[in-house]
Amino acid sequence: MTEQSVRWGILATGGIAAAFTADLVDLPDAEVVAVASRSEASARTFAERFGIERAYGDWNALAEDADIDVVYVATPHSAHRAAAGLCLAAGRNVLCEKAFTLNAREAEELVGLAEQHDSFLMEAMWMYCNPLIRRLKALVDDGAIGEVRTVQADFGLAGPFPAAHRLRDPAQGGGALLDLGVYPVSFAHLLLGEPSEVMAKAVLSEEGVDLQTGALLSWESGALASLHCSLTGGTATIASVTGSLGRIDIPNGFFHPDRFVLHRDGRDPEEFTADPADGPRNSLKHEAREVMRALRAGEKQSPLVPLDGTLAVMRTLDAVRDRIGVRYPHEADLTPA
Questions:
Q1: Are 256 and 281 in contact (CB under 8 A)?
Q2: Of the listed 98, 137, 285, 300, which one is catalytic?
Q3: Of 28, 82, 32, 93, whose CA–CA distance to 60 is shortest?
Q4: Known active-site residue 137
Q5: pLDDT category of residue 332 using cuts at 50, 70 and 90
Q6: Tens of pLDDT along 277-299?
């Protein structure tokens, strides 16, 4: 790593890996030097698409590549523990997609490996790095709407998804919760921290994954969060935060908004819009910039996406799965939260 360039390795070649790499190659201080897949042909095709020098047909070769400053892990979340763990054990820094792992136990193991090898580790919760979400959080933290009373958020896709699709495959950690519900849960955590109680209901598929899930989280302060995720209907993906003195509404795409509206008692509504200079609302560049900033500063985790927060989210996701009865193959029994 130099002041001019951070060298990235990409582990996996699916859609999110392609989207992230496309944003990376547009950053003047980022260099994508290697990609790995379980299939060498897939790695080579991906490398040719993005002009990447080295393509590996196995994960270990990427993990052992000493010319890589940080690895972006973009496998299905069922493989995050294995893929990120391999890289951390080899001394690589890691940005790992969300859901961070299948469960909190695996997440704790990755955090332990990062500490053991003195490596940087961050969950790729790009929502937390979005400038407009950061502005919203600052307003809430500064008391703009008083004490937070309720949070509402939803994320659903219309589908239908066939039984063979990864979103319905228990072996790949399928279901709405880990793929989509992680966003509403993380949004509530961002504003309120870890809940004291979790209630949930779900509709399960024949394969045993959740097709849609509703969760009600509560905090000792009296705050509540009503959250929903679905693979059976395209929801509005809106969010609202209500406090004792006002409300903030995100009218669409709450996890990568282009605007939000602040309503305060006795005042006209205030609209906050994304700065065009920040790029498209779906840009993954913000999280990439945060990783590179942290690496240059010698930090082992990001203050925007702290590991304690990631572990707390995983505990909440575990608790939801405990309530709805979803378990994945070869997964140890979860301790009810």
A1: yes
A2: 98
A3: 82
A4: no
A5: low
A6: 888 888 999 999 999 999 999 99
